[in-house]
Amino acid sequence: MNDLGAISVDQGFWVLLGNTLLHEVGVPVPVLPTALVLGARATHDAEDFLMFVVAIVVSMLLGNSLLFLAGRRFGTGVLGFLCRFSVTADHCVARSERAFARWGGSSLVLGRFVPGVAMVAAPLAGAFGMGWGRFVALTTAGGALYGAVALGAGVLLREQIDSALRALEGLGAEALVVVIVAFAAYLAWRWYRRRVGRAPDVARTTAAELQALLAADEKPVIVDVRGPGMRQVDPQGIPDTITVPLDAIESGRDDLPRDRKIVLYCGCPNEASSAKAARLLLERGYPWARPLAGGLSAWRRASRG
């Protein structure tokens, strides 16, 4: 067990803190492998285990506080910024909003175990006006729970983790190649998931094209598929819009006309929700349904121009 024992508590603390902080602000660096290794290191020392949990809690508080304050200051618009750096944010916005509607602030705790949701949940909490003290308490609880589970798994899997580390050590320089290839494969998988979530097979309508359609005699039906939480934070939508949330379209309760063009929009990065809604309508036989490229933000930019 010399490999794990050679890792000092101080080294592990700062490595885990830095790793978790990068992950919390959107850098696609997974925390779980580091937590598993350090959990195995802390098998026989409760104080070490507690220090590693503290590292996770502190970094989650720091990272998520920045996102919380950004959500408070800029509203849901900060999600688009996050999406430029994250490979998971765009397909989790609607899921996070639903989690808030269903669980309230406790989604900051449970969302830790749902990929991508934790990063989006913090700015949503700020945008929805959650109190600072409550946010800190829930984020601390979520970080402590996640840390206990992830590090505890390392404790339980100590022998397997030690064997894996010894195998990597035996590979020498090849071990670095294995790690790089594994990380590249992880990013490629996340990128693929993001492309799928963006629904690239669904044709988009630009804000300029929508303006042209509105100026024509046969005006399209414009549908806001945002949930009630998003509309509460940002109530100003496109004029003459009807509201049909994504979950209503998913369950077939939309009652939209089939003899008119339908343009759908949302506030999700990469218009993920409206693209999904358009695809569902097309699959049900609607002749013309398209998401608005860039969503509500693109419409506002075009209107100002």
SSE layout:
Blueprint: H1 2-5, H2 9-24, H3 32-41, H4 46-74, H5 78-83, H6 93-103, H7 107-110, H8 117-127, H9 132-156, H10 158-171, H11 173-197, H12 207-215, E1 221-224, H13 228-233, E2 241-243, H14 246-250, E3 262-265, H15 272-283, E4 289-291, H16 295-304
Parallel strand pairs: 1-2, 1-3, 3-4
Helix pairs in contact: 2-4, 3-9, 3-10, 4-8, 4-9, 6-8, 10-11
Q: Any overview of this molecule?
A:
The chain folds into 2 domains: 2-197, no CATH class; 207-304, Oxidized Rhodanese, domain 1. The chain is elongated. α4 (46-74) packs across α8 (117-127) and α10 (158-171) crosses α11 (173-197). The longest helix has 29 residues, at 46-74. It is mainly alpha-helical and 305 residues long. The chain has a 4-stranded parallel beta sheet, with helices on one face. The N and C termini lie far apart (65 Å). It contains 16 helices and 4 strands. The model has no long low-confidence stretch (mean pLDDT 82).
